[in-house]
Amino acid sequence: MRYAIVSDIHSNIEALDAVFARIEPSDAVLCLGDIVGYGPNPNECLARVRERAAATVLGNHDVAAIDGHGIEFFNPNARAAIEWTQGVLAAEHLAWLDGLSYELRLDDMLLVHGAPVDYFAYVLDKNAAARAFAATTAPLIFNGHTHIADFYALRGDGTIEHAFRQHGGRLELEPGTRYIVNAGSVGQPRDLNPDASFALYDAGARTVEWVRAPYELARTQAKMCEAHLPEALARRLAAGR
Ligand code: ZN
Which end of the chain is more exposed for a tag (fewer CB within 10 A), N or C? Predict the structure, then answer.
């Protein structure tokens, strides 16, 4: 079985379509949340994810879109985008989001938006990775939230290794080692590569491959401008930060 892991789509339908064009119909799509927020096409992204994903967990922007929960932690641009999203979100999509959970365990995999148990914590360094590993027994944790494609490996001797995958790349999973694999962001990458990021996990071959998919981001930016979403959110797409 091969899984396509997507996260942090952020209402960017051009980026999502570019990613879905790169996967096979037989791939099982797993979505790690933040389908909405920041971008101009929340309903279109929700429709696409609902049609294609085998499993989805909640992100902090999804939760904020549902009922404003956590919005006090958002910066002014993120908050403005969530308020705009709340104004356009179809009731049917909102109800679907409201039925999602914060984590899912599938075989050896744990799916979370940010980290196990502390769902919206950012795993940005080895200390945070150590806390995340300690919070679950799952051998393979898939997350997003930081918008940075990377991984942490916890060896049998307790040491943690970290590596970026912001230009794509592979990882062969070793027996006896646990992993936190960040798929990067589909719709708003922050690892200085503006191309949409996602990951492919081949459960049989025990490999993870990160893929970057270029998309027509000028089109997304034009729609953001038309919707009067904060200009800085459109600008950052081109910078990938
Ligand atoms: Zn996000």
Answer: N
Residues of the chain with pLDDT under 50: none
Ligand 1: distance of its center to the CA of 2 in Å?
24
Residue 3's pLDDT is what?
98
Q: What is the pTM of this model?
A: 0.97
Sketch out the chain's domains with CATH numbers: 2-239 (3.60.21.10)
Q: 3-state SS string over the chain?
A: CEEEEECCCCCCHHHHHHHHCCCCCCCEEEECCCCCCCCCCHHHHHHHHHHHEEEEECCHHHHHHHHCCCHHHCCHHHHHHHHHHHHHCCHHHHHHHHCCECEEEECCEEEECCCCCCCCCCCCCHHHHHHHHHCCCCCEEEECCCCCEEEEEECCCCCEEEEECECEEEEECCCCCEEEEEECCCCCCCCCCCCEEEEEEECCCCEEEEEEECCCHHHHHHHHHHCCCCHHHHHHHHHCC
Q: How far is the CA of 147 from the centre of ligand 1 (A)?
A: 6
- Which pLDDT belongs to residue 107? 93
Cα 107 to ligand 1 centre (Å) = 25
